[in-house]
Amino acid sequence: MSSLDDAVALYRRAHDSPEALKSLLSTLKSSKEPPSIQFDLSRHGFCSVEFATLGRSFPPTTTAGYTLSAWVRFDEFDLNTHTTIFGAFDASQTCFILAYLEKDTRNFILQTSIRGSRPSVRFKCAKFEPHRWYHICLIHKRPKPTSSSKASLFIDGEFAEQLRIEYPSVPYSHHPNRPPRIQAFFGTPQDLAMRLGKDVSTSRWSLANGLLFDDTFSDDMVAVFYNLGPRYYGNFQDCLGSFQTYKASATLNLRNEHLHPGKEESSDIVTAIRRRASVLVRESSILINVSPVAVLDDDDNNNVNESQLIKCLSKQAARSLQQVTKAGGNAVAINGATPAINDGLTQPQGVGILTGDPIVEVPRSLDDASWCLGGCAPVHLSLIQAADTAETLKLAVEALYEAIRDNWRNSEAMERENGYGILAAQLREKLGYQFGTSAIPTKIPLVTSNAEQCSLTLELLKLTLSFVGYDFDRPNHSIITNPLAYRILLVDMDVWRFGEKPVLDLYYSQFRTFATESNYRRFNARRLGRMRKLPLKSIRHILRI
């Protein structure tokens, strides 16, 4: 679909067409890929985003070190070529950093010099696999008088391995008042390509975002970076809790309670997600922030309409954009370290040049489109209201959960608009329970037999449990990720307690799973205990059933 009008047509059709509703659900599930820049070496043998300068000295000598953070997906490995991820160097290569995956082992390699007895180290903790997104974070601390320099690798928010390696050397400046120019890149520049030409390499990998900081961060902050996901591309200056999905929030809260018992409120996690992350991440510490949503070219029909953008720029910035994209023929990535586009286009470190024709993909997910159309909640709740068969009701409920599950905007919209309360009322009505009564069943409008009613109720219960964190494949990994939905749709809703035996068995057993059998039972029990409609003594009674 090329526009919101197409999404409008699909949602309208889904109100009265089961096939359109199935298509909508399928698209919701499959359209959540993040924007990305794909470096495909088969086109020219090289492919990169290159920054002519970082605009300041590097490596840092006044902070604890530097940090490299990137969301990456390896689409295809070339057995004859290393997969270069990032590099930085000065003209003399006194300062030299290269991060890549080794062609044979697929281990992460960090190289910090081109000379010396041990110029590089191999992190053997992980062999990276194709076709999945990884969050890679490297924290390299400079040496202290009593200790040597160490580099720590984090994969998907968790510490993986720490190795000793020389800190990059500080290059000599020929101008006392001007630091030496440090170039940096993501991908494989032409100068580093093993061979040039079409189809000389099959290496392809994608970058959702890449950041370089001139500072180091705690393990907790690395976990926050990871849990924001590959669709986040900001500078970490806000209250980051607003950008989290329910699963991310639960994961970080669990980590906080486990690692900082009794001191939860003073941890970096709480500071970042409930206060302001700018206290921990200075915006001035960001040297590079590359994102595909900030790529500008000479095509007005893709993610950015440059003809309209130019009208908002200064003359110098507009001239610079036209010179690069039209005269040079290259697209540019605005460096998010300079948040204003106008500043980025007028500063030497403000843009990265895309060389070797990287493929920029900026898909619009359908869950985002539902938020643009009407804030998600009314759009999807209307589908549930329109459902007139058991099958369309299940599809509509699953579509709503899918639109919320991985989208922080839609999660906020459901809470703000009392979406869960409305959904609970809709389910009661669709399952045939009167309002204002003690949940006495009446005629079921969507089914014709008790067996069909039991099947429908059981399917809706399974969908709801999965949505709030129940893991049917691994019940001992179940964690209550969405306590508000859990309380309104499971604890407060009495329709489940009037179901047939399969419904009753699942409904009551899930309390036991969450509170006593899950690996996260203490965390779950605390959340259950806080629910005003289900005091802890009631939970204990249920667990004895």
Report on the architecture of this protein.
This protein is α+β, with helices and mostly antiparallel strands and 545 residues long. 36% of the residues lie in helices and 19% in strands. The strands form 2 sheets. The protein has a 9-stranded antiparallel beta sheet with strand order 7-6-5-4-11-2-16-15-14. α13 packs parallel to α15 (483-491) and α14 (450-468) runs parallel beside α16. The relative contact order is 0.11.
Number of strands: 17
Shape: globular
Compute the average pLDDT: 91
- Please state roughly what percent of the residues sit in beta strands, choosing from under 5%, 5-15%, 15-25%, 25-35%, 35-45% or over 45%: 15-25%
**CATH-defined architecture of the largest domain:** Sandwich
Q: Could you estimate the helical fraction of the residues in percent?
A: 25-40%
Low-confidence stretches: none
Alpha-beta classification: alpha+beta
The major beta sheet can be summarized as: 9 strands, antiparallel
CATH-derived topology of the largest domain = Jelly Rolls
Strand order of the main beta sheet, please?
7-6-5-4-11-2-16-15-14
- Termini, distance in Å? 51 Å
Q: Return Rg in Å.
A: 27 Å
- Tell me the domain tally: 3
CATH class of the largest domain reads Mainly Beta
The number of distinct helices, counting runs of at least 4 residues, comes to 18
